[in-house]
């Protein structure tokens, strides 16, 4: 996400910070490059114009020009303005009055509404809510079946809709059913069309009127860029949206929709979908997105992701083992499993401040298939071998290779690398040198 824009802006700001002093001339030159980078990222041209006017005005002030580190001050201004551009701060769902609270998901066909309904339900469930899913899309074949299957996956009850029912009636009846079941949030998956038409809008208006929805969220494909912004504007005019969810953001290296949608529609971007799995769903934090765009990482999101999958006591136990040099292959396997629950190695590196920019580290990123092969080799060992890898002789290595579908050479390489990794991680746990420790670890795992 934002990869292309981050690369472009990194080059621009590298030039700025490399200059001893800043003048109105070199600031203007830098802003021209920023303008080009934003337009290439598919940011709305009016948004780009207003953004650059604000940044230029603040960056040419006397306080900045006389600063001891003017380049860093300019980057701080850009960071603040990017944050404000995208909404300032995370805007959560608002629930007032008596439950159940209805949430309408609207959007064009193919935007990912049904999958997003399940993702949102899981997110709310993890945050103490008791959601209820309502399939009100009676237009698309198998939409009801899809949501029912996803509801089972996230362990959330679903209203038993049938294809020939009226969507507004389905929504109203589901609220009564949710209340009887003690559910406090009802997520209504509505129908979409290939394009906006009056028939669709009339149907959605009837659903809104039947449920008195407090939250009406547009689900839009982030990869469509400014088309998503235009769709948001049209839906807002008809339904008065309360927010937007952009899907498929993991594949959007430009990020134009995320950067434009708040300024153009005045509606907050509340959540983003970052993958196909039901867990690949995140609240949108403008300040964290701005940090990512400027190559500063997103350590807060990384910590939050880790807290969701890593057991605190297990983590403390692992650090104690590392400090004593007692880290085993079994421990290594557990840590790999935890890391892969958080995300891909590439996505994790991007969240760590400074590491995303390191060329050597980027080149050293391990192939996800390589990690799978490592796990297979360790899984083919006995408990005793994982605890004490020194006992793995030539005959054991042949057996492990056969059991894991690899070669003896692969097994030998893993054991050699593990010995080196253990030394590195021991030093890293003592000195806290995260960057060099990860750099060497990833290089040796290639």
Summed up:
The chain has helices at 3-17, 24-40, 45-59, 62-65, 70-85, 113-126, 143-154, 167-181, 198-211, 226-239, 256-265, 286-293, 299-309, 312-324, 329-342, 345-351, 359-363, 368-379, 383-387, 394-404, 408-431, 434-444; strands spanning 101-106, 131-136, 185-190, 215-221, 243-247, 269-273, 281-283. The protein has 446 residues and is of the alpha/beta class. The protein has a 7-stranded mixed beta sheet with strand order 2-3-1-4-5-6-7, with helices on both faces.
Describe the structure.
With 446 residues, the chain is an alpha/beta fold. It has three domains: 3-85, SRP54, nucleotide-binding domain (Four Helix Bundle (Hemerythrin (Met), subunit A)); 101-284, Rossmann fold (3-Layer(aba) Sandwich); 302-444, Signal recognition particle, SRP54 subunit, M-domain (434 Repressor (Amino-terminal Domain), Orthogonal Bundle), CATH 1.10.260. Helices cover 60% and strands 9% of the residues. It has 22 helices and seven strands. Strands 2-3-1-4-5-6-7 form a seven-stranded mixed beta sheet, with helices on both faces. Strand 6 and strand 7 (281-283) form a beta hairpin. The longest helix has 24 residues, at 408-431.
